[in-house]
Design goal:
Helix content: 25-40%
Pfam family, one: Acetyltransf_1
Oligomer: single chain
Organism: Paenibacillus dokdonensis
Number of strands: 7
Strand content: 15-25%
Number of domains: 1
Radius of gyration: 16 Å
Distance between the termini: 23 Å
CATH class: Alpha Beta
InterPro entries: Acyl_CoA_acyltransferase, GNAT_dom
Structural class: alpha+beta
CATH superfamily: Gcn5-related N-acetyltransferase (GNAT)
Protein name: GNAT family N-acetyltransferase
């Protein structure tokens, strides 16, 4: 499938779907030292070539805001207390707009994917964003069509703002067998 970058927006943070974590999984907030957990998870899903590159990116993006990570970064733990998934209820701006909420760096280690963990994680992250922002956005790509299906189910909508967007959403309508562009 052609890899086309896409952006999605949730215009409000009302009526956020909530899903329980299946046992023995649970969600918790970032704590000191979790940089390494983030690095391991993000590297495991192929976001970075190696853990050193991931740590450099973490430091660049979050290092000066690590105090905010305690309330904005979530981890899924397995029954042994090991971090196996993460996302960050962060912030950013679309175009020149004011700062809004952002679902950022969603990842679940491959051996735990397919265990109904993504929806509870996304719901928990949106609940965090609701404490700070009236709306949210995220960036993704057409190759993440399973995640896009979930984002659509959570009320995110396509943002048509760049060349190629319409091609991407048309492709996804076919792949997901669902009307997306209204």
């Amino acid at each position: 499938m052609k890899n086309i970058p896409l952006t999605m927006v949730r215009q409000h943070l009302n009526d956020i779907p909530q899903y329980p974590f299946p046992s023995p999984f649970r969600v918790r907030n970032f704590k000191p030292g979790d940089e390494r957990s983030w690095v391991k998870i993000e590297t495991s899903v192929g976001e970075f070539a190696d853990e050193d590159a991931a740590l450099k990116h973490f430091d660049k993006e979050f290092g000066s805001h690590v105090h905010e990570m305690k309330s904005r970064c979530l981890f899924i733990e397995n029954g042994d207390g090991e971090a196996i998934g993460t996302t960050t209820a962060w912030y950013g701006a679309l175009r020149d707009e004011e700062r809004i909420g952002r679902i950022h760096w969603v990842a679940i280690r491959p051996e735990y994917q397919g265990q109904k963990l993504a929806k509870p994680l996304l719901g928990a992250a949106l609940q965090v964003l609701d404490q700070y922002h009236p709306q949210a956005y995220l960036t993704t790509q057409t190759t993440s069509f399973k995640a896009i299906q979930m984002y659509l189910d959570f009320g995110f909508e396509p943002l048509l703002h760049a060349p190629g967007c319409m091609e991407g959403w048309t492709l996804l309508e076919s792949v997901l067998n669902r009307k997306i562009i209204k």
